[in-house]
Amino acid sequence: NVLTPAGLAKTISFLCRVKTRGLLWLGIPCSSWVFVGRANAQRYFWNPEGNTNNEYTSRHNKLAEVGMNLAWLAYCLGVFFVIEQPSTSVLFSWWPMQRTLFRCGCNRVSITLDSFGAPSQKSMVLHGTAPWLEDVQDASRSLRPQNRGKRQPLVQAKTIKLGIRITGKLNCLLYTSPSPRDLSTSRMPSSA
Hints:
By secondary structure, the chain is α/β, with parallel strands linked by helices. It has helices spanning 5-16, 38-41, 55-77, 95-103, 133-143, 180-183, and strands at residues 23-26, 80-86, 107-112, 123-128, 172-175.
């Protein structure tokens, strides 16, 4: 649990062991940032912070702050990071997150999970510093079931199993919250 001092210390310790140009993949829990949680969190694009008097919303804000701080630490250590959210999430509209993404010079791409074997066609947004993010987006477009065979994916030397190995011998650290529904079939280390 990264919201406890011991859990956060352990996570930071692991992150500090990732090699330069390694990867930190952040799947910040999305349930309060998407439309499903709006009734509870009271988050909207014009108020992404939500109802901070609500314990549920406050806890998710803290999780997002930890994620932003881990991303900033990764950036300072020379470790690439990627933050994923469903395309309907308001997390990237929250000004502390926008500030972090801007400071790190992040790229933004969109993918669909069915491109990587998940049964869901869920559209995801990835923000990050990894130089191959656009290749992942191109691969997602090429690998969509309706596009298979129409063109070759641009990702040739990189594996699609992003959480395991990107190129060469780069190490990866994943901080993600997988959904039990898609966990057994998805090859993406995500909150699919």
